[in-house]
């Protein structure tokens, strides 16, 4: 009986919180986990008409069962992200409060592995800037990989403690604190979360969240929005910290959510419970900054360690992009070439000066003598030219591509080719006679045996 495997204090807390609906909550935790995905609107659409929609996110859908996502080339190409449905409530909260049609500066302060970052990225205009930060270094590569798959060039990935953002006080229109928490809402999905739960850990999480919110608050401009979310039901974390924001210069913004969605209004935020919402536990509240104190931000004239590329190199790079005039090209001291969106150049120079550990712009590739080696990120980017030569692979060959095997083609090809599946770019091949070399980065190689499929 799953109920008995929960800590007694947790059971007591939930009984107290839910009253008569506690048995329904426990029963829901014993049901199979719902599987949901969010499709990437900037990439080729998946056939979704037969799928059950997630009502609060127009790109979210439930799947009837859980496939082996790793073995789906469309997943590898960033056509969708596997995300638990309750947390997609963020889409509706942003739609109601954030005036997304304007260019915005957005910070996702606790971003790895990137579920909410990819959701936000797809809702912003192309002139908006999204900074995705993760403090734990070992979690940055997965964040970077997920954002590269998602393919949008207006994203910065950084690796900093929230307090390191001091030089960006007043800079952001919107900050999301999707805080590290006691994870009660993930007990069905992640049994480890049950083992880690203790009253002491709840206290540590609540205090940590307050420290993160304290660092996040000054980063907002006048009237900026602070979104605070967790995947727990715990009032010591959610309620206490939301109330604290209300007492420290923030106005709570209620949302208008249809009764039929089952989301519970907790007066300082909104809670999803698995017996009411088809998804896991998720808490979200939206606040608007009341103080008026935005400092003027000086814009540096140049990027710290990027130099413009040479003119002949620009001519080589431009044909790789669909709209090359929207970008300027720079090279790092290590030789990596980046395309920086013109519309974001000033904001990126500010971020570049303020943060030490970050990467931004679209990674184009490197020059080896006169030859240009395009990067994997460029193949997956929504900005890559649609006129480049490519080859549509069968599913078997697409999986061989992701196993990093060399493919044999019927015809002889020369030069760079985009490997495609279902019209989606998977990565680069280089034709040498009737063999093609596979340029998938080795760290992206699938280790799973494809015969299992
Ligand atoms: C709930 S997870 C974020 C999930 C992510 N937003 C998503 O949707 O995929 C919380 C994140 O906060 C990070 N974190 C842990 N301690 C932190 C701290 N003191 N300050 C900021 N972030 C922290 C964790 O490493 C973790 O990646």
Automatic annotation (TrEMBL):
Signal sequence bounds: none
Domain SAM-dependent MTase RsmB/NOP-type as annotated: residue spans: 12-290
GO molecular function: methyltransferase activity
Record key words, sorted: Cytoplasm, Methyltransferase, RNA-binding, S-adenosyl-L-methionine, Transferase
Active site, UniProt feature: 231 (nucleophile)
GO biological process terms, semicolon-separated: methylation
Database matches in InterPro entries: Methyltr_RsmF_N, MeTrfase_RsmB-F_NOP2_cat, MeTrfase_RsmB-F_NOP2_dom, Nol1_Nop2_Fmu_2, RCMT, SAM-dependent_MTases_sf
Top-level lineage group: Bacteria
SUPFAM superfamilies per the UniProt record, alphabetical: S-adenosyl-L-methionine-dependent methyltransferases
Gene3D superfamilies according to UniProt: 2.30.130.60, Sun protein, domain 3 (3.30.70.1170), Vaccinia Virus protein VP39 (3.40.50.150)
Amino acids binding S-adenosyl-L-methionine: 110-116, 134, 161, 178
Family: Belongs to the class I-like SAM-binding methyltransferase superfamily. RsmB/NOP family.
Name the UniProt record assigns to this protein: RNA methyltransferase
Species assigned in the record: Larkinella bovis
């Amino acid at each position: 009986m799953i109920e008995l495997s929960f800590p007694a204090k947790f059971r007591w807390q939930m009984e107290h919180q839910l009253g008569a609906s506690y048995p329904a909550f426990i029963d829901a935790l014993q049901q199979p986990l719902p599987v949901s995905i969010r499709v990437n609107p900037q990439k080729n659409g998946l056939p979704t008409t037969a799928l059950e929609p997630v009502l609060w996110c127009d790109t979210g859908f439930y799947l009837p069962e859980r496939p082996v996502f790793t073995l789906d080339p469309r997943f590898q190409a960033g056509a969708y992200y596997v995300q638990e449905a309750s947390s997609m409530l963020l889409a509706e909260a942003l739609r109601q409060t954030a005036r997304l049609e304007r260019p915005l500066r957005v910070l996702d302060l606790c971003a790895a592995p990137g579920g909410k970052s990819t959701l936000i990225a797809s809702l912003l205009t192309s002139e908006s800037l999204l900074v995705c930060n993760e403090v734990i270094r070992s979690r940055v590569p997965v964040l970077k990989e997920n954002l590269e798959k998602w393919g949008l060039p207006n994203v910065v990935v950084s690796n900093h403690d929230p307090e390191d953002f001091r030089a960006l006080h007043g800079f952001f229109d919107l900050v999301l604190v999707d805080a590290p928490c006691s994870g009660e809402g993930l007990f069905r999905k992640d049994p480890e979360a049950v083992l880690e739960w203790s009253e002491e850990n709840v206290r540590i999480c609540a205090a940590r969240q307050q420290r993160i919110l304290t660092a996040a608050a000054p980063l907002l401009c006048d009237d900026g929005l602070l979104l605070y979310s967790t995947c727990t039901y715990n009032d010591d974390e959610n309620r206490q910290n939301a109330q604290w924001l209300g007492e420290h210069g923030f106005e709570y913004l209620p949302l208008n959510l249809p009764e039929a969605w089952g989301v519970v209004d907790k007066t300082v935020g909104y809670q999803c419970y698995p017996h009411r919402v088809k998804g896991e536990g998720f808490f979200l509240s939206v606040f608007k900054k009341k103080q008026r104190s935005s400092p003027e931000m000086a814009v540096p004239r140049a990027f710290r360690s990027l130099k413009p590329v040479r003119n002949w190199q620009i001519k080589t790079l431009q044909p790789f992009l669909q709209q090359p005039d929207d970008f300027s090209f720079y090279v790092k001291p290590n030789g990596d070439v980046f395309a920086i969106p013109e519309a974001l150049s000033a904001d990126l120079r500010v971020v570049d000066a303020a943060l030490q550990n970050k990467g931004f712009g679209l990674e184009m590739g490197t020059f080896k003598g006169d030859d240009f080696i395009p990067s994997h990120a460029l193949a997956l980017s929504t900005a890559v030219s649609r006129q480049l030569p490519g080859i549509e692979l069968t599913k078997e060959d697409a999986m061989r591509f992701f196993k990093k095997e060399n493919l044999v083609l019927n015809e002889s090809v020369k030069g760079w080719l985009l490997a495609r599946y279902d019209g989606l770019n998977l990565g680069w091949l280089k034709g040498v006679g009737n063999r093609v070399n596979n340029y998938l980065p080795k760290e992206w190689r699938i280790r799973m045996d494809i015969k299992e499929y």
